[in-house]
Amino acid sequence: MMKIKPLALLCAGLMISGSVLAADYQFSADSKPATDVTKTKNEAVYKQLDFASKTDFENVDKGFIAPLINNGDIPGVISATGMNFMQNKEAPASVNPSLWRHAQLVNRGGLYKVSDHIYQVRGQDISNLTIIETNSGIVLYDVEYSVDSFKKSIELYEKERGKKPLKGVIISHSHADHFGGFAGIYAAGLATPEDIKSGKIPFYAPEGFVEEAVSENVMAGNIMARRAGYQYGNVLKQDASGTITAALGPVLANGASSLAIPNHFITKDGEKATIDGVDFVFYLTPGAEAPAEMVVYIPQWKALSMAEEVNHLQHNIYTLRGAKTRDASEWASYINAAIARWGNEVEVQFGPHTWPVWGNQNVVEYLKDQRDAYQSLYNTTIRYANYGYRPDDIAENAKLPEKVFNKWDNRPYYGNTRNNLKSTYIKNLGWFSGNAVELAKYPDAERGKRYVKAMGGESKVVDLAVQSYKEGDYRFAADLLNNIVSYDASNKDANYLLADALEQIGYQEETALTRNLYLSGAHELRVGGSVPNKLSTASPEVIANLPPKLLMSYISMISDQIKAEKLGNHTIALNMDGDKFLLDLHNGVLNYVELTDDMPAQKADVNVQISKVDLIAVVAGKEKMDDLLNNGKAKVEGDREVLKQIASTLDTKIKNDMNLVLPLQQANQIQ
Ligand SMILES: [Zn+2]
Predict the structure, then answer these.
(1) What is the fold of 6-30+442-527?
(2) Which residues in the chain are classed under CATH 1.25.40.880?
(3) What is the CA(392)–ligand 1 centre distance, in A?
(4) Neighbours of 578 (CB within 10 A)
(5) 66: left (phi > 0), else alpha (psi -120 to 50), else beta?
(6) Could you give the CA distance from residue 140 to residue 128 in angstroms, rounded to a whole number?
(7) Rounded to whole angstroms, how far apart are CA atoms 111 and 106?
(8) If you average pLDDT over residues 346-365, what whole number do you get?
(9) Do 414 and 313 form a contact (C-beta atoms < 8 A)?
(10) What's the whole-number mean pLDDT along residues 402-416?
């Protein structure tokens, strides 16, 4: 049954065509099937790419030993079965066939033999667990995101290959999907925390690993986790109108993750480690896929792992969850250096995501293809920019070599080509294109109000949007409706139609993450906002592990400067478990400097001694500074009122269920 607005129907005959269209549009919160326009667009993909080639399907199953335990299902953590609904089926109209094909490849899993000494468990989490068999034991290379996933993966390995003593751990980089499962090593009885702390079992990671792991997940962690929930489709159903794959692996597993503190840091290129008779040679690759990352080569087996610098997909120059933008040219240069270093002899390449590549020629070609993609993104962006093309023009219209970008390994399943081009512009030239109009542009809500008025009111804008929608121009329909939605959450027709438009765009996307973002945005509009948040990266365990300086940086960030500027200027000398800082509240801004022995003594209005645990409790809003002063847990010399006042400026009310499409909820706004 169509829901027809009576008034609109009555007037339909008198109105222009746009209104006639709006009158018979069924506004509802339901998910819609693919339209004919979407169907046609998705069908065209079959002509663009080489679907006849089955090499990837052969390689992804090569070396298969055994399926995942319980088919990879861990209640409450991961439903691998649920993510396998696309196997052996044709792509439905609501999914880009190229993304469908990729999901078929990465959503499967099991224990695999990579080479004589190297085994992988794939598909139990978004990342792989690699087990390297040494003379009398094993070395673990990246340990998945979830502790529970790790436990099941190692159980599977031990079931098939026997229980072997742990001789070492290597973590390739600072992203949580590579180290979060670390505590599973203890749970599985492979080592004790003391074995790692003492260095008895060597644990290697690249220089800067801890700082980067913490900074990415904590300082901007609140908004980043929210965006990640949309990007990974955690708020969506797992089906053909919802999330299909996380592209690097089937899905990001839920459940507890942990922070791992290495006992050996790789600081120099070419550094070698011998673990239980096997040589590992490391090269650092910072500033590309992650701020702290390294690749590793095992000369005696001619085995290379490029960590996450190469994958069977195009990766992110800028990840839409939000992070520092990466350097595409540097990324290409690391891959190129690997070709020069090991290209003559390498026999196998394995990584913490997707599947391995075997044979010298194949590995070198794979590396070259990935290198070309990142170098091309950089060269294209900068060359076009030098001509005067603006970021959007480059992203939409730049001509890219098909020989590079039509390769399956370079398809934009995780990183999106348009986003990568735009981000490379921003990385090198910043957000401003040079057009002064951009400097004067109103924010969305202010702009929206003016546009809606200029166009003749909200119902006129909805009429126009229906027209665009029916013509298949979902992007313009979305743009039109955003003018209303940006300042008014209550116009249901606008919300539902915007959701429908975003949904069709999502159905056409080849990139898993942009598909998820479009569909999550649609979901938010349909439920009216405040979508529950299931992800949080700034967990109490992570906050408790913050290095002292980063904790100060966090405290400085959450201090409400408008409250603080009324307090006058004050200095505090802080001694936190022996780490000394001078805090300088100056005109409302809370600055800090770490005091080192080579600095002269500093004068302060108040001296405070407090443990890190107690200070963290204040920052988390679990303790009041007043109580700590009264029960003697915080010791003060000087004016204790100053300390109380400064503590009262700390903002502990930042929520994590903020809208990302609808206007920011009243309860989430800074009061
Ligand atoms: Zn990863």
Answers:
(1) 1.25.40
(2) 6-30+442-527
(3) 28
(4) 8
(5) beta
(6) 11
(7) 14
(8) 98
(9) yes
(10) 97
pLDDT of 536 over the 80 cut: no
What integer is the mean pLDDT of 195-219?
Answer: 91
State in Å: Cα 542 to ligand 1 middle.
19
Average pLDDT over residues 428-447: 96
Contact 374, 332 (CB under 8 A): yes
Write the class of the CATH domain 39-373. alpha beta
Distance from Cα 252 to the centre of ligand 1, integer Å: 10
Cα 6 to ligand 1 centre (Å): 53
Instruction: Convert the pLDDT of each residue in 603-640 to its tens digit.
Output: 899 999 999 999 988 888 888 888 999 999 999 999 88
CATH 3.30.1050.10 residue spans of the chain: 546-648
CA of 308 to the centre of ligand 1 (A): 6
Residue ranges, comma separated, of all CATH 3.60.15.30 domains in the chain are 39-373
What's the mean pLDDT in 70-76?
Answer: 95
Q: How far is the CA of 493 from the centre of ligand 1 (A)?
A: 40
pLDDT-derived band of residue 14, with 50, 70 and 90 as boundaries? Answer: very low
Pick the CATH number of 546-648 from 1.10.10.350, 3.40.50.300, 3.30.450.20, 3.30.1050.10: 3.30.1050.10
Q: What's the pLDDT score for residue 259?
A: 80
- State which residues have CB under 5 angstroms from ligand 1, the bound ion: 175, 177, 308
The span from the CA of 85 to the CA of 230, in Å, is: 21
Pairwise CA distance, residues 425 & 213, whole Å: 26
pLDDT value at position 391? 96
Q: Is 76 left (phi over 0), alpha (psi -120 to 50) or beta?
A: left
State in Å: Cα 113 to ligand 1 middle: 21
pTM for the structure as a whole: 0.92
* Separation of CA 142 and ligand 1 centre (Å): 9
State residue 11's pLDDT score.
Answer: 41
Residue 289 CA to ligand 1 centre (angstroms): 9
